[in-house]
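Q: what sequence does this backbone want?
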């Protein structure tokens, strides 16, 4: 099967992932890979680092996180958008072992060759979403639907999410 995506410079933020061939609506594009770790381990390892609004962490629920800083693949470079063309889907392990769940990126619509892939990170923080936090987690997707932040309302969880903020009680859900 020919490779349909590649990492390149993005106008949204730093690196991005782009289609190198057409991708059909509903197509499974790539698995989000990285080392599966506990939230406590991730919080301990990243607690001393300044928050930058940039993360390669994907929560698998209350206990585990995929840390794409370790053994991550190209999927970690897919940027957030308020009008995404992809979604993240968590596939639960058949034996109920959450640490064995997998996350895949699927196309929400047909994607043309050359188009940047994006999904809504759905970042929800436990603490109040202050102006400073909204600025830290600023969105630069350029969509007419852009909210200006990757943070999601606590009352309306999104289907997909990218990040657990290091050292924060953040939740990200994939549906």
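A:
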């Amino acid at each position: 099967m020919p490779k349909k995506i590649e990492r390149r410079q993005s106008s949204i933020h730093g690196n991005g992932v782009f289609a190198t061939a057409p991708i059909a609506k509903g197509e499974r594009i790539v698995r989000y890979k990285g080392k599966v770790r506990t939230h406590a381990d991730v919080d301990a390892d990243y607690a001393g680092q300044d928050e930058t609004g940039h993360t390669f962490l994907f929560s698998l629920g209350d206990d585990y996180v995929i840390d794409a800083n370790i053994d991550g693949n190209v999927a970690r470079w897919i940027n957030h958008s308020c009008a995404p063309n992809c979604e993240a889907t968590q596939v639960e392990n058949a034996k109920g072992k959450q640490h064995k769940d997998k996350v895949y990126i699927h196309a929400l619509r047909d994607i043309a060759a050359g188009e940047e892939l994006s999904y809504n990170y759905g970042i929800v923080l436990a603490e109040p979403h202050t102006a400073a936090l909204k600025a830290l987690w600023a969105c630069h997707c350029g969509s007419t639907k852009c909210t200006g932040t990757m943070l999601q309302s606590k009352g309306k969880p999104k289907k997909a999410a990218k990040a657990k903020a290091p050292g924060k009680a953040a939740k990200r859900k994939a549906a």
